[in-house]
TrEMBL record:
Cofactor(s) the protein needs: Mg(2+)
PROSITE patterns xref list: IMP_1, IMP_2
Protein name: 3'(2'),5'-bisphosphate nucleotidase 1
Keywords annotated in UniProt: Acetylation, Hydrolase, Lithium, Magnesium, Metal-binding, Phosphoprotein
GO molecular function per UniProt: 3'(2'),5'-bisphosphate nucleotidase activity; inositol-1,4-bisphosphate 1-phosphatase activity; metal ion binding
Signal peptide extent: none
């Protein structure tokens, strides 16, 4: 045990290294050429070899180091012996040099729930839209998302052979978010980011009600939140029950740490305790600024259709 460091900061420092390892696995599967695609519930709900290996790597690495954690991963995998080469036992020392927010300094391992999406944006991954892909590790305490790590395996992948590939963003509420440059959409502009592959009438009605100047349709919840914090979009609008807790836990932390807000379409905070249902059944509404403006424009017909 590393003495002197709180459980939370040790967990975040480990999750950073573990997310980087998962990003390496995601890149390796593409490079090897066999994605091993299987359909889960529909042609847009896919799982690949990268989803499976990255989840085994993340969950096993976390469980070895923090055996009392509750870990909830997207993929329903059989329990089997995990290859040692999938295990990451490192930690990002820079995180351990940061102070733990005082409200979290006495948290015990068994009080934390970790939500894992080993490969967010799987459909886009299979179609070669690699900058949509993220690895998400979110950490919750008393039902609230308090820390998160997002790895982008293919950040910079179009920047040429000399560019460093991949990036990891992390944050803790009360401390901040790190690994990116915060930018905002110009004042008065309403640029909406929404789903690329899971649209329906509710989604399009809700987006139209925002009176957008532009609409971006991209894959991955992690990717959409990154668009908000990097000034590419002003709000993420998804009026549908397709999104799950492992999609939103880590991204919500990064957004909240820089003053943004993520709720359902009714304006309710999302809950992340271990007993909660996995589906975000009342959709997702997120923005870096002016959340009340976007929440006020959600049509009553959309609210009535999406029950929390």
């Amino acid at each position: 045990m590393a003495s002197g460091h709180t459980v939370l900061m040790r967990l975040v420092a480990s999750a950073y290294s573990i997310a980087q390892k998962a990003g390496t696995i995601v890149r390796r599967v593409i490079a090897e050429g066999d994605l091993g695609i299987v359909e889960k519930t529909s042609p847009t709900d896919l799982q690949t070899k990268a989803d499976r290996l990255a989840q085994m790597s993340i969950c096993s690495s976390l469980a070895r180091k923090f055996p009392k954690l509750t870990i909830i991963g997207e993929e329903d995998l059989p329990s089997e012996e995990v290859d040692q080469e999938l295990i990451e036992d490192g930690q990002w020392e820079e995180i351990l040099r940061k102070p733990c927010p005082s409200q979290y300094s006495t948290i015990k391992e068994e009080d934390l729930v970790v939500w894992v999406d080993p490969l967010d944006g799987t459909k886009e991954y299979t179609e070669g839209l690699l900058d949509n892909v993220t690895v998400l590790i979110g950490i919750a305490y008393e039902g609230k998302a308090i820390a998160g790590v997002i790895n982008q395996p293919y950040y910079n992948y179009q920047a040429g052979p000399g560019a460093a590939l991949g990036r990891t963003i992390w944050g803790v509420l009360g401390l901040g978010a790190f690994g990116f440059q915060l930018k905002e959409v110009p004042a008065g502009k309403h640029i909406i980011t929404t789903t690329r592959s899971h649209s329906n009438k509710l989604v399009t009605d809700c987006v139209a009600a925002m009176n957008p100047d532009d609409v971006l349709r991209v894959g991955g919840a992690g990717n959409k939140i990154i668009q908000l914090i990097e000034g590419k979009a002003s709000a993420y609008v998804f009026a549908s029950p397709g999104c799950k807790k492992w999609d939103t836990c880590a991204p919500e932390v990064i957004l909240h740490a820089v003053g943004g807000k993520l709720t359902d379409v009714h304006g309710n905070a999302l809950q992340y305790d271990k007993e909660v249902k996995h589906m975000n059944s009342a959709g997702v509404l997120a923005s870096l600024r002016n959340h009340d403006y976007y929440a006020s424009r959600v049509p009553e017909s959309v609210k009535n259709a999406l029950v929390p």
